[in-house]
Amino acid sequence: MIKSICLEDQPIEYLPTLCLNCWEVDELIPIGYRLSQNIIDNLDNNLKEDFSILLSRDVYSEGDAQFLYNYLLSRQRELSANFLALLPLWLGDEQKHYQALSRVYSALSGLTTTAVDNNFHRRSPSLEPIAWVLQDEFTIVSTLVFDELGSMLSYRRDLREYYRPFGKTFARVGQHLVQDEGSHFRHFLNILKQNHPHRLKELPDFFHSLIKLEKSLGRYYHTFLLDHAQEMHRFPSYFSEVVVQLILAELNFGDRPSSTVIKSLTLVSP
Q1: Following DSSP, what letter does each residue of 175-244 receive, concatenated?
Q2: pTM to 2 decimals?
Q3: What is the tens place of the pLDDT at every residue in 168-187?
């Protein structure tokens, strides 16, 4: 049985010098950043409220990378050297996402970043519901590939729907989120190709079962993985299937979806 771990015992230890993608949170959005009155006056109240609700989920799921990182380190004897070398760099990016989104969320909601941190540490992740994806390095990295590509596409929609209407600072945060998640997808995909070429043929069946698991969860269990379970209502019903098609096409296991289908994943309804 996989034991749940309380986040009070898993503090976020920022690794500012370790990252895959070099940008500074303080230069992008300083602590205490506030929206200009001009931006506020020209915003739809529903847009601000909806964005706050979205951020109340996204900021914490980014922070959950620390929990996943600590869990994976507890199994490091089972993991390859190049995957272990990548993990702290990936974590450094995800920590920046947590910091930046905490400041965006604070500017919108009025919560202090300290209050956001306190809320984060009260959460209790549970790995048991997703134990199936944690069997070995192959299943873990395959799930990360799926998650990171899905995050890139969902942030691409969020950039248009939410970040850009709130001005250049928020837009730059959104742009970095999209770029970073795309970079993470590529790095984890390379781990799959380098370390597990003999198992790539398993991916179509694996992803089929992964989608079934994701849809059956009904909620997100604060583990970083499969956090899209809390956002499925916002996207087309075929979102995950297209994500899988894109991954498999990268590995020459099928055709790439049409540009029309890909664009439909990030379209914002009027």
Answers
A1: HHHHHHHHHHHHHHHHHHHHH-GGGGGGHHHHHHHHHHHHHHH-S--SSSTTGGGGTGGGS-TTHHHHHH
A2: 0.91
A3: 999 999 999 999 999 999 99
